[in-house]
Amino acid sequence: MASARGEFTSRFGFVMAAAGSAVGLGNIWGFPTQAASNGGAAFLLVYLILAFTLAYPALMAELIIGRHAHANAVTALRLISPSALLKKIGATTGIAGFIVASLILSFYAIVAGWMIAHCLSAAALLLGMDNAAQWLVSFGFMRNMIFMLLFMSLTISIISAGVREGIERWSARLMPALLVTLLALVVYVLTLDGAIDGLKVYLLPDFSRALEPKLIIAALGAAFFSMSLGVGTMLIYGSYVSDKENLPVLGGMVTLVDISIAVMAGFLVLPAMYVALHNGVEIFTATGALISEDTLIFTVLPELFSTMGFAGLIVSFTFFFLMSIAALTSSISMLEVPVAYTIEEHGVKRHTAVWVIGGAIALVSTAILLNFGTLFGLVISITTRYSQPLLGFMLCFFAGWVWNRNSILEELRKGNAAVEQSLFWKIWPWYVKFVCPLIILAIFAQSLLG
After folding, report:
1. Is residue 3 part of a domain?
2. Residue 5 domain-assigned?
3. 186 with 31: CB under 8 angstroms?
4. Which one, out of 58, 158, 249, 395, has a CA that is 20 to 30 A from the CA of 423?
5. Contact 160/351 with Cβ under 8 angstroms?
6. Nearest to 45, CA basis, from 196, 197, 210
7. How many CB atoms lie within 10 A of CB 165?
8. Membrane-crossing residues (predicted)?
9. CB-based burial of residue 139 (10 Å sphere; 0-12 exposed, 13-18 middle, 19+ buried)?
């Protein structure tokens, strides 16, 4: 069944695709700004601990279920459910997952379009096309619409090519490009005046803040959301993994790459913020709080780049190129979730499914743009603050409470015959059964309480 659906041909291809799914705009701008707002290095320390104690076990739940079923989330959760009632709950969870993934992509495509527009604006300034550059960074329906459609077209074209020629091939190209670009930007920004102040905030912990409930909950949320958990992206990628692969090792590699990129982004964004402050660009509000993430990316950093002359145009182009790649590697996994369901459950050809679903998501994006003030923040809150944690809880519930433990062990033995004696098997089953659901519910409770 797996070969007929498509399968990752190499471990590198899978790790790049899965890490690309996890590494998105949240890693590049969300994690560093959360770190800056929550004690810098203290947040970083707590985040690193929680990423391996929450994100990795929850990631493994999705990968194991997906690889076992070699199918979409709806079919997979039905397959591991022993009763008719649980099968219905599993199918409902899977359907909710691809709906939420589609809604996330609907607003994500808008933001990604802004990234592309800012990248092209820097290129236009380099070519002396000042009017075009100004239009590209001005907020307007036509600009937003054009670049949302451009981004969705890129995403659709990659997914249309299938698992090997589309997802794996382009992830193996885009992720190394992302890493090289990020590293180059970090090296350059650290040479600028003011960067050391940001580096101190990021690396010198105030241990008294490490146990603050607000900081811990923020780090929990960052660890969970940075891995694209809950909506079935990792489950569907797991379904394309060969039975010969050692899943705990693969999951560990994906987690390590994702965390490394988030941490590396901190070495870029926090020093850049303090470089901006050194250059006279304000990064704090009147109350002393750090400015919001979107203002940082689309106002403060461009202002910083403008103070750097010609070099600033190069840095601006490179930075927004990086952000565009990060967005694209995540969007292809989001679109694959509803596409896989439609192909497997309804027998629709991939090309047709991709264009129909991608077009429908673009229509939702258009509706958001037409009612931006009302819908944009609402869709983000419904999907990421409320739906994603609940779906993550359900996936842990199925892995920890519904699926037979012996069946899980048999699945893991396919890639590692001695897995029963491993530290992973001694900890993970009870951990995903008791600890992960409680942590996820804590994140959800914090979302409700604001």
Report:
1. no
2. no
3. no
4. 395
5. yes
6. 210
7. 12
8. 12-29, 41-59, 95-125, 145-163, 175-196, 216-237, 249-274, 310-332, 353-380, 386-404, 430-449
9. exposed
Could you say which DSSP state residue 207 is in? Answer: G
Which amino acid appears at position 260 of this protein? S
pLDDT digits (tens, 9 = 90+) for 20-30: 998 888 778 77
What sections of 347-422 are H helices per DSSP?
350-370, 372-380, 388-397, 405-413
Question: What angle do the packed helices 84-126 and 372-380 form, to 10 degrees?
Answer: 130
- How confident is the model over 266-279, as a mean pLDDT? 91
What would the two tokens of residue 133 be?
Answer: 């550059």
Look up the CATH number of the domain holding residue 32: 1.20.1740
Q: CA 233 from chain center: how many Å?
A: 10
Residue 184 within a domain: yes
Domain count, the chain: 1
Residues counted in the chain: 450
Cα gap 197→169, rounded to integer Å? 40
Distance CA 336, CA 112 (A): 17
Q: Which helix (H) or strand (E) holds 252?
A: helix 247-278
Q: To which residue do tokens 């059964």 refer? A: 433
Concatenated DSSP letters of 94-152: HHHHHHHHHHHHHHHHHHHHHHHHHHHHHHHHHTT-HHHHHHHTS--HHHHHHHHHHHH
Q: For residue 359, give its domain range.
A: 10-449
Nearest partner of 224 among 81, 363, 379, 57, judged by Cα:
57
Q: Which of 434, 385, 45 is nearest to 215 (CA)?
A: 45
Q: How many CA atoms lie within 13 A of 134 on its CB side?
A: 4
Helix H or strand E segment including 13: helix 11-22
Q: Which residue has the tokens 């797996």?
A: 2
CA distances from 355 to 54, 161, 363, 367 (A): 35, 12, 12, 18
The contacts of residue 363 (CB under 8 Å, 6+ apart) are none
* Closest to 139 measured CA to CA, from 123, 117, 120: 117
Q: Could you tell me if 55 and 223 are in contact, meaning their C-beta atoms sit under 8 angstroms apart?
A: yes
Q: Tokens 């007929």 identify what position?
A: 4
Distance CA 136, CA 191 (A): 29
Q: Does residue 440 sit within a domain?
A: yes
